[in-house]
Fold:
Amino acid sequence: MDVAAIAKEIKRDDLRQMYYYLRLTRAVEDRITALYRQGRIVGGVYTSHGMEAIAVGYASALERDDVIAPFHRDMGVFLIRGFAPGEILAQYLGKRTGPSKGKDGNVHMGDLKRGVFGFVSHLADNLPVAAGAALAFKMRGESRVVFTGTGDGGTSRGDFHEAMNFAAVRKLPIVFFCNNNQYAYSTPIRLQMAIPNVVDRAKAYGMPGEIVDGNDVAAVYLAAKQAIGRARAGEGPTFLEFKTMRMHGHSEHDPAKYVPRELLEEWKKKDPILRAEQLLKQLGYGEEAYFQEVAERVKDEVESGVEFAEQSPLPEGPEVLEGVFAQSAGSY
Amino acid sequence: MTTETMQKRQEVTYLEAISQALDEEMAQDERVFLMGEDIGTYGGAFKITEGFLQKYGEWRVLDTPLAESGFVGAAIGAAMMGLRPVVEMQFADFISCAFDSECPEGWFFHSPGLKLVAPSTPYDAKGLLKAAIRDPNPVIYFEHKFLYRRIKSFLPEEDFVVPLGKADVKRAGGDISVITYGAMVHLALEAAQTLANEGIDLEVVDLRTLMPLDKEAIYSSVRKTSKAILLHEDNKTGGIGAEIAAMLAEDCFDCLDGPILRIAPPDTPVPFSPPLEEFFLPKTSDIVSAARKLAAY
Structure:
């Protein structure tokens, strides 16, 4: 993107804040991966490594009372919505202090009070639910927006179609995105769909769509901001295709030998954190000392998070019986 | 309501009663709204919502696209935002387009026309899969991922099948029948060893096929031992064990010397954290204590 245009559209502090969240996301997930390799994580680990700019960019573009139904590679969303690294690490360790209190694991977490819907493994299942939240906003005449999305593979599912269609028919205040990281587990996009760009699907729903550089946090932020503005103005849903690359395996147990090494080398140069640093330097918003300071701050936050998570108790067996039914209706 | 005032009112049909409930709830609570196929302009496939569109408008009586998973999901999202959606499925058959289950054998068990198998050993895994492929019916084959790499055995070199609908006694015993399947078979065998030291002789019946159930094998074991424990990972209420308990009560009542006991997880979603999972899943010690209790009869 044009640096001058970015300077005009994004405030210095907002951009620096996004940079901080990119670093925090990477640091939290790197720590989770390290714990996984030590055999201390219960269950699987799915990261947003190399794709951090998507969640950080779009979550930063939303207002606080907007709602997010995230995808499984959207760690930045949780951090931006105030889930402390310690809470997140506790979730991965199966501790009582995690958002699901040990009832569920890894990225299967959410909190209605913070406007983040829980994620389930069935990809694109979050989209109809998100459309329902947007329906509630529209019915009540609130100027709130929902942001949701899935991966390239998830767009093959019926739920994707059902939600996109319903939202378009009812002109709901919602933004859909696709994190196109080119692989659905081991399946490359050419075996997933016969169209060159996922965004082509938007036309079928009478919805505007846009291709966005998913590794450029400023581009993600600005595209999200515009789509959110449309939704808030009552102009209906938008579909954003964030082009990126999955730099790790599907999960941390997957060495992803099916991904050509050259492709990874090529995308390594487009790392979103490197890109953000370059941008901050170009704009005169940051230099080495600042980057170092962010790195230190992030390191401290993650380490105290690990300490919190490790010292947290595991739940007691009979706690599984709690919370099966709600005592009262929650809301956000 | 007094009998007199009831008499002044008109009699209502079952359908009208449903319609009244919806209407009254919508009138008194503006959060309540309806979603479903053909419920607006058309008034519903069975006319339950006739006139609702005119009365409440198209944002409280939503005609949806033909997409159950989409509108059930949307109802969940709207409810999370504080609304009270009521979703009409039009026909109960379509609800299967809109749900997921973590321990699904119970669901399929209640769907006539499907055969269900759940092997516990490599021999049965291979033989049942071949039989399933050769069977002219739809067969749902449940592989147990806990067992994938935990057990080994030698298999015949020649072609073989394990016939569908045939249970297998994995351990013969005279005192108590443990009727089970899948990974729980191994738990029962472990418990049987412990109990053998106390002089309690368990018989372990591996169902292998859950639908159709091998009634003969179940009955002949229980007729021999007169006592039954039903063990499974499917949750307890309305589970497969409940069906077998009912069958035994109907057909083997005379031969029972003690209560039919069920060992199964509680009615909660499958938990994640190890202590919760440990509490949730049946344990060898559960079988041992159930068997001791039954042995006293």
Notes: Chain A has a mean pLDDT of 96. Residues 3-309 of chain A form a domain with the Rossmann fold fold (CATH 3.40.50.970). Chain A touches chain B through 54 residues (CB under 8 Å).
